[in-house]
Design brief:
Largest sheet: 4 strands, antiparallel
Number of strands: 9
Strand content: 5-15%
Distance between the termini: 56 Å
Shape: globular
């Protein structure tokens, strides 16, 4: 067995592209994941339960909740640092990164970008500390890829608003203190800040998931939910609001998926070096080395793409089509890497003793949410041809 090996990240000299501060933030999050997440995650995944409130406070203490936002107790880091944090969190589990993404890039971002100063002061500091948990209600049972068809509606009743509708696949729904809910009004699609204790709002846990089991996923049912006039997000009208939030979350996924890919690949490499067949480690067989080399190439290219998009985001020049490019490529390649790693582990690869099948199952969801593979393909196609093929 060789005495010295090169890690997939070292093969591409990833650290040379990062500043000292970015590496420091990454290392702090990696240490947290190694200490708090990895020893527990197979149990949480196995039972389908997550200590979300406890974890939210720990993640708040770590400083990763809304870390890329300015003010209100948020760290105000650059985009690359936020992306690296997502990568490390998803190396632990996609469900943990989802908790952070929904909190910071969907719920907190919506209030930060489009809320009133009163809404920001009321919610953001507690959310940054992890004392308050948020969720984001856009997707509906019959409207996922086509949010413009949403049925949830809000109507005026005097100075109040009355909301009715159903939202589906809502991360954090059953543990959230506040929901950002998008609804159709006479003034177009608008966002509302809805405390989850409001009468008429019910969260139903979605059971029997085979993916993202270490994540709280819910259905939100709104029945004559009465809100005051100041519950509306004043800073945006139309789909621009929720779609800009989704773009923030997709950016985190571009990095996060590479975390799941790296953890799977490192596990497969370690396994291949210790698994003996025909009197030698399977790492010494050409077919195994080809699998590992091909996967390392896709991991490296995906990580380089993520960092490049992060630099563009920090410069204020990244486009939604470019983020779609990153999400499409990296979610697809991470899933392919996890599947190939599973093959290296053979029968052992289907057990929770190793992380690969868990990452593989989780990535099936990541491949679909925040825009399906098909939708991102069409976004890129439209950018390249000028023709929209959605209808």
């Amino acid at each position: 067995m060789p005495a010295m090996t090169t890690s997939p990240s070292e093969l591409f000299a990833i650290d040379s592209l990062l500043t000292e501060e970015e590496r420091s933030i990454r290392d702090v999050v990696r240490t947290f994941v190694d200490r708090e997440i990895k020893p527990n995650i197979s149990g949480w995944f196995g039972t389908g339960e997550l200590p979300a409130r406890e974890l939210a406070r720990q993640l708040g203490d770590l400083g990763v909740l809304g870390m890329h936002l300015e003010g209100y107790g948020c760290a105000g880091t650059n985009a690359v640092s936020y992306g690296l944090a997502c990568l490390e969190l998803e190396a632990g589990d996609s469900g943990i990164r989802s908790l952070v993404s929904v909190q910071g890039s969907l719920a907190m971002y919506a209030i930060h970008a489009f809320g009133s100063e009163e809404q920001r002061q009321q919610w953001l500091p507690g959310m940054a500390r992890g004392e308050l948990i948020g969720c984001f209600g856009l997707t509906e049972p019959d409207f996922g890829s086509n949010p413009s068809g949403m049925l949830t509606n809000a109507r005026r009743d005097g100075s109040d608003w009355i909301l009715n509708g159903t939202k589906m696949w809502i991360t954090n729904g059953n543990v959230a203190d506040v929901a950002v809910v998008w609804a159709r009004t006479d003034d177009g699609i608008r966002g509302f800040v809805v405390p989850t204790a409001t009468p008429g709002l019910q969260a139903n846990l979605i059971p029997d998931k085979m993916s993202l089991r270490a994540s709280v996923t819910s259905e939100l049912v709104l029945t004559d939910v009465r809100l005051p006039a100041d519950a509306i997000l004043p800073g945006v009208r139309g789909l621009k609001g929720p779609l800009s939030c989704l773009n923030e979350a997709r950016f985190g996924i571009v990095f996060g998926t590479m975390g799941a890919a790296r953890d799977s690949l490192e596990c497969a490499i370690d396994y291949s070096r210790s698994r003996i067949q025909f009197d030698r480690p399977i790492a010494g067989f050409q077919l195994t080395q080809k699998k590992i080399a091909d996967m390392a190439l896709e991991f490296g290219k995906g990580t380089l793409l993520a960092i490049h998009l992060g630099r563009l985001k920090d410069a204020g020049t990244v486009t939604s089509a470019q983020v779609s490019t990153g999400k499409l490529n990296n979610a697809r390649e991470a899933l392919a890497i996890a599947r190939e790693c599973r093959s290296i582990l053979g029968g052992n690869g289907i057990t929770l003793e190793y992380p690969v099948i868990r990452h593989m199952n989780n990535l099936e969801s990541v491949f679909t949410y925040e825009g399906t593979n098909e939708i991102h393909t069409l976004v890129i196609g439209e950018a390249l041809t000028g023709e929209a093929a959605y209808r």
